[in-house]
Amino acid sequence: MRGEFRRLWVLASQLPMRSRTMAREAPELSWDERDYLLALVADNLTYLRHEMAAGRGRKPKPVPRPKVSKAVAHRHLDVSDERVSELLFGNRGGSATG
Q1: Residue 9 CA, distance from chain mean position
Q2: Which H or E element spans position 53?
Q3: Which residues have a Cβ under 8 Å from the Cβ of 12 and sit 6 or more positions away?
Q4: How far apart are CA 46 and CA 30, in angstroms?
Q5: How far apart are CA 50 and CA 63, in angstroms?
Q6: Is 2 within 8 Å of 87 (Cβ atoms)?
Q7: Spatial distance between the Cα atoms of 6 and 85, rounded to a whole number of angstroms
Q8: How far apart are CA 4 and CA 70, in angstroms?
């Protein structure tokens, strides 16, 4: 069991930040910095255009960003501090089967 958890942890830690698995676990990871910056630029341009039109018309809505649900925000693994330290700082040599 211990080896299986370690193997899973090693595989999961190597996933790209924009992978479907990471996006499911942390929706804010489905966007990278470039996406957030482009959304900010788009928002600022629409707000500027609205202000230059003396505020006439509908107020622009910002580009929707990924949101973290409360269930995901409060979800965590039930792992002891010792196990986390072992995984992060333990011996990395040898096999991943433990």
Answers
A1: 17
A2: none
A3: 21
A4: 24
A5: 15
A6: no
A7: 13
A8: 29
